[in-house]
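Changelog entry

Holo records now carry the ligand SMILES as an explicit input line rather than a separate metadata file. Below, a converted record for zinc ion, shown in the new format.
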Amino acid sequence: MIGRWAGTAAAAVLIVAGAPPGAAHELSLEGPLTQGGLVIGRGDAGIAVTVDGRAVRVSPEGLFLVGFGRDAPPTVEVRVRYRDGVTTVRVLHVARRTYQVQRIDGLPPRTVTPTPEDLERIRLDGAAIAAVRARDSSRADFASRFQWPVRGRVSGVFGSQRILNGKPRHPHGGVDVVAPPGTPVAASADGVVVLAHPDMFLTGRTVMIDHGHGLASVYAHMSEILVTQGQRVARGTPIGRVGASGRVTGPHLHWGVSLFDTRLDPALLVGPMAE
Ligand SMILES: [Zn+2]
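Structure line, unchanged by the conversion:
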């Protein structure tokens, strides 16, 4: 499964170096042009960038992010305006993916519908997570690149969806990696811990890291949290341990990456898992 996504990513990597003939500007867009993918743009210092008409943050070195959601449209327009007023428009063609859909019927109602008290906790947890995803910090920590936070069997892939008793659930927003309880979980990239929650209803012991420019990662169901809110972490820093906290059927790490409220496929950020 990982090999398949990695293959897709490799095939779709686009590096556009240089600019139209005669122009002195540089623009590179690096990353998989596929649903769930993240592209890191690099241009001259002082550029202004819009993605489908919305302004995005640009670092002092000219770095910016473009993300494609699970159901991203076939084309996304990136418009770059240089300090001298020259404007470049790139239309990115985003490859469409197909996702696993699993239908399960005949479940007892209780396993499908939470109680009002549970729903209130889920709402509060969701608000805390949404507040993290809304952050737009100026650090470009994502430039450190990403690594797998833990190694093991991938038991759940990005974008898959279950339909329980005819009700479509939210598509899976990350990847699940099975590893023995207690296995250290590493920060997938440089960043700042912006959420370290000991007991969320669905996701249990949960850590979120802000990598800058709206890019955040989440690590769920851990048995132990090894970092505190506000702590600076480097890629590879242990942040917790694999567990089965929250609503799960067995020990695993749920790892998610989002650009604001758009979920991205973490597997596309890291490539195949080394043995
Ligand atoms: Zn998961």
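Spot-checked after migration. Residues 156, 172, 174, 176, 254 surround zinc ion (CB under 6 Å). Residues 1-15 have pLDDT under 50 and may be disordered.
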